[in-house]
């Protein structure tokens, strides 16, 4: 009877070879899937940056309308969109709710270029993943 209990306890666990095979399969799958997932994250950040830049541009246009201005000043600061009328913002401000609204997905504040390179009056721009003007692919600049 003792032999049967010893035999049962040996068959309950996994062998080292089985564990190595499973870990190898998981590693191979991870190396195939990880690059695709990481590229999707980069694409999502670019899309979010473009959407946010467009929203900021619309808020700037509202600010200009409320203030009776036709062109944006060269030294326009995005932080004015966060201020209430009593604090020096536009008549119907604040136009943006929180300071994170003027920060791109890479943690850098959006910038205003006057006159714009893409649009006639101004551009709202994120410098992308590399956080510098220029760049290609995921590091390219994003303009509304």
Main attributes?
144 residues; mainly alpha; Glycoprotein, Type 4 Pilin; three-stranded antiparallel sheet; 2 helices; elongated
Give a summary of the structure in a few sentences.
With 144 residues, the protein is mainly alpha-helical.
Give the helix proportion (percent range): 40-55%
Summed up, the domain count is 1
CATH architect. name: 2-Layer Sandwich
* Secondary structure: number of strands: 3
Shape: elongated
Mean pLDDT: 86
State the order of secondary-structure elements, H for helix, E for strand. Answer: HHEEE
Query: For the record, what CATH class applies?
Result: Alpha Beta
Q: Number of helical runs?
A: 2
Distance between the termini: 79 Å
How much β-strand is present in the residues? 5-15%
Give the biggest beta sheet: 3 strands, antiparallel
Q: Could you list the spans in which at least 5 consecutive residues all have pLDDT below 50?
A: none
CATH superfamily: Glycoprotein, Type 4 Pilin
Q: Give the class from helix and strand content and strand pairing.
A: mainly alpha
């Amino acid at each position: 009877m003792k032999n049967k209990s010893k035999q049962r306890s040996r068959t309950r666990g996994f062998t080292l070879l089985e564990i190595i095979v499973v870990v190898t399969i998981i590693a191979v799958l991870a190396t195939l899937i990880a690059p695709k997932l990481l590229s999707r994250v980069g694409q999502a950040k670019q899309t979010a940056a473009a959407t946010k830049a467009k929203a900021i541009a619309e808020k700037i246009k509202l600010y200009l309308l409320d203030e009776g201005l036709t062109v944006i000043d060269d030294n326009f600061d995005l932080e004015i969109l966060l201020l209430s009328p009593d604090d020096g913002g536009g008549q119907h401000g604040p136009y943006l709710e929180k300071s994170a609204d003027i920060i791109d997905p890479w943690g850098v504040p959006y910038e205003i270029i006057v006159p714009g390179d893409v649009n006639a009056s101004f551009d709202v721009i994120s410098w992308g993943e590399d956080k510098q003007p220029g760049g290609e692919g995921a590091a390219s600049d994003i303009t509304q």
